[in-house]
Amino acid sequence: MREENIQHLKHIVDALNKNEKEVLVEYLKAFDSRSSGYKPKTLIILDLLLKNDDLSIINKYLKKKFGAKSEDALRMMMYRLKEKIGESLVLDVNIMREGVYSELSQARANIAKKKIIALIYTSRGIAHETLELYDKVISLAKKFEFYNDLIEVLMYKQQHVGIREGKKAYNKLTEEINFYEKSRTAANDAIKAYYEVSINWGFKGLNRNVPDPGYITFLEDKLSKLKKDFEETSSALVGYYYYTISVEYNQVLHFGKKASEYCNYLVDLVKNNPSIYLKLRLGNVYLNYSQNELFNYEFNSALQNALEGKKCFNTGTYNYNNSLELEFYANFYSGNLKDATTTIETLIQNTKTDKSEFSTAKRHYLLACTYFAQKQFIKANRTLQFTSSAEKDKEGWNIGMRIFNIMNTVENAQYDQADLLIMNLRQFIKEALKLKFVPERDKIILEILLELRKQGYDFEKIVKTKHQQLEQLANVKGNHSWQIQSPELIVFHRWVVAKAKEKFYEPVYRMEVVNSID
Q1: End-to-end Cα distance, the chain
Q2: CA-CA distance, 273 to 384, in Å (whole number)?
Q3: For the chain, what is the largest distance between any 2 Cα atoms, rounded to a whole number of angstroms?
Q4: How many other C-beta atoms lie within 10 A of the C-beta of residue 502?
Q5: pLDDT tens profile 218-264
Q6: How far apart are CA 149 and CA 52, in angstroms?
Q7: What is d(CA 362, CA 349) in angstroms, rounded to the nearest whole number?
């Protein structure tokens, strides 16, 4: 027996949960009428697959147990087991088990089974029960917007009703079919529009770049049609994509408040419509809402949405980790530094979270920033020792961490070390400019740091000599403004001003404070 064939079957068996395995065992027994002590061959193979991970051992035992049988006979037994696994999985006891499948998936399976039963009834002339099944399928398909099933069964019903009740009943169903044909087209167009945005542009509304005129025009054309289709069909499926793309459109234009309105519409729509409700989908809507509220400086709202989103994901999954990071940012920016510290420590310590080198380094950096904001500069310095992996980063975290390290070193009064770090930063940016774009803000910060080093870390003098550059950094407009969720958690120009006044940096992130050097 080829181990490849065994591996495929074992992969299926290993994917079953405990309850499904128990149901499968009973299902396999149900097909054998022999004495209670007899064990079906498929059950023997199943036991072997459940108790062994080594494919060579499984193969060896199969040959020993069924050695007299031909290779084809053994392959047929394996095939039967595979078929029986599939059959057992669609039993109601498995499909309808709470917490295993979404309501959407359960409804789809229910409809498929009812359609098969209706087909069998039709072939045997059981008309009344067939129509009852059609009505049940139609009701479910409308509720969950399964338009292919809905139209198919409406047409079957139309044929039955037309023969028995005449032209009027037939034509009435024609009108209904036409409406749902239109709804199906609208839904398909909405899905297509979503993937065109995703594949061609990538949903980058929160990257804060200057809007691309071509992208704006593209979104406006799509939204015009989606809005019309949503109004004419009242399809929650169309509405979901209409609102989702509306959020993107307003984020691209930096209309944060309007984007939040559409996020709120999305939450209500997903929660209240079974045709689009998926826990994972609702969670992602909350995360987008949370991130949008961060950019609106609405940190309490961002926190609440991150917490709601977190409830929708399993611990340790990618989206769960994202919700924790958003929770961290919302707490940090709103001044809840102890909660921010606890959240990021949870991410670092949890063995189920992403343990890639960069993710680990980034989270230690975020933790170091919370220590800095709490004036625990020595702890921040110790924590920075775990951020070396971020040196491979190509998205700005490397430079951001280097700048922060300089700031923290100055706070620890290690000026010789700060000198070295500043010169290293200058060289790093010089090399980076040959290969990629370096943000204007980082260039200005380097200019100020070089002057600071030259002036012996006399911050009062720097505020005077580099006043224009500090004003540039504080300006909300332009490509040198400070950004939410950037590596610069400790706002550089605010730190310089605080040092000039011989004060500690205060982690206050209200817009009017961040965009000021007073």
Answers
A1: 78
A2: 47
A3: 97
A4: 8
A5: 999 999 999 999 999 999 999 999 999 999 999 999 999 999 999 99
A6: 42
A7: 14
